[in-house]
TrEMBL record:
This is NAD-dependent epimerase/dehydratase family protein. It comes from the Archaea. The lineage of its organism: Archaea, Methanobacteriati, Methanobacteriota, Stenosarchaea group, Halobacteria. Residues 14-114 form the NAD-dependent epimerase/dehydratase domain. It holds the Pfam family Epimerase. InterPro entries: Epimerase_deHydtase, Lipid_A_modif_metabolic_enz, NAD(P)-bd_dom_sf.
Length: 183
């Protein structure tokens, strides 16, 4: 069953998953070390990262998973109806935000790093399929219990304090990359 609300990743305090609880604890530990010991902590909450690996050979993240499924099995499997949304952020944008975190004067606070846009899992599956094998099937399997239905990152603090502005959209980035790794 999905949780029916959109989760704003900047809101902490009431996680609905084990992962969310881990994020909250990490943020609180960082705040504690900053407040009690003066350690300049800057926890970053990365959204769904995608992009090429260091060698430039493998597409990573959910798009990479779909490419691997398609090339191995001839189809893509999506859990749930595919209409659930995620905030996908390109690895190049993540690197820029991380550099911004290393140089910010506003320490002791957590920042969410995402694109600030929601994209459905079904859209990502279709983008991959259309670039690898347009005739391939997209199969839908049972949703898993406890999944968040929709997520959308509030990146306003990262924009303000890390001088962060995402420059890559998942729709714009996937075509060339998928074509290169799927052949």
């Amino acid at each position: 069953m999905y949780y029916k609300t959109i989760v704003l990743l900047s809101i902490a305090g009431r996680p609905v998953s084990t992962y969310g609880t881990q994020m909250l604890l990490r943020d609180r530990y960082a705040q504690l070390w900053h407040d009690r010991h003066g350690v300049a902590t800057v926890p970053l909450r990365y959204c769904n990262i995608y992009g090429m690996d260091v060698a430039g050979e493998t597409l990573c993240g959910l798009p990479g998973t779909f490419v691997r499924q398609l090339t191995a099995d001839g189809s893509i499997t999506v859990f749930g109806d595919g209409r659930q949304t995620r905030d996908f952020v390109h690895v190049d944008d993540v690197v820029r935000a991380t550099i911004g975190a290393a140089t910010t004067r506003r320490v002791g606070k957590a920042y969410t790093v995402g694109s600030g846009e929601s994209t459905s899992v079904r859209t990502v599956a279709r983008l991959v399929r259309d670039h690898v094998d347009p005739s391939a099937e997209i199969d839908f399997d049972e949703e898993y219990d406890g999944a968040v239905r929709d997520s959308h990152a509030d990146i306003s603090n990262a924009r303000a304090w890390l001088d962060f502005e995402p420059t890559r959209s998942i729709e714009g980035c996937l075509g060339d990359r998928i074509a290169g790794v799927s052949r």
